[in-house]
Amino acid sequence: MPLYRECPSCRALLTEDQLTTSEGLCPYCDARVGAHGEFASPDAAPDTRRRRPLVPLSAPATLSGKLATALFLLFEQFALIAGLMLLIKLPSNIGIELIADQNPNRVDPVEILRLKILVDLFFGPIYMAGIVTLLANRMSGLPTTFREAAQAGLHNWASLFAARIVSGFFILCGVILFIIPGIILAIRYSLIDEAVVLEGATVADSRARSSALTAGKELKIFLAGLVSFFLIAAFFELTRDLAGQAGLFDDPLTRAAFDSLVDVFAIFYSIVLFLYYWEARTERESAGLLLTASKEVQNYEL
Prior knowledge:
mainly alpha
């Protein structure tokens, strides 16, 4: 009997005790693990949530391939990704724009940015955990409903929020001491979301797990960040010019809608990071299979 079982949906590693307590359902994404009758009662209603499977995807080896795959995933899953993000982004952006619009004095754009960062700090883990679960399912060829993604987001909010706070503190210290250490730490901790949501890493272990996943890929992730930043900035400038020509910035509600749309497309970089995680995970699994095969050959020779 293996020590852990892997969830076919979110790929989390689960113990037998966890599965027994939850009657065979993954505690992170609520997907069924193993045969239906292994943990649940045979008289229970059948699990019909797994719909027509999709074609599994793999993470390309090149940066251009990852960028193209990230764009494909963004547009293919746009409805779910936008739904998860707009559920939080749109109300918060509307509130911020209305507050700024009612202020008789001109509001400093830095203050608006600070408010948006604060909102994303608290509520960002909800939609990000849902998106990570959605992407993991899609790469495995499994569809995801909005409810499943939202449940994963709510379930992982506390642990992901805490892990982000701690890692952000270390990154900030690195920036204060000298900018370069802050950048290095930001790259090493860039896969904390995936480590917490998909692998169940604790707050204490998440930084080490992310560092292990990014080992040997730091420069590639840095270059991917630069390219993604320029692509997102180009999209922002293009859409801002078009919205300005159409007079959409005259109303706070249309400004909030524009900001929310840009936020949805900015998730592109997070998808690129996820592909680096998926690549590292695939490499780790391949290395484990090779090690197992090598041990079997040695045992056979003995």
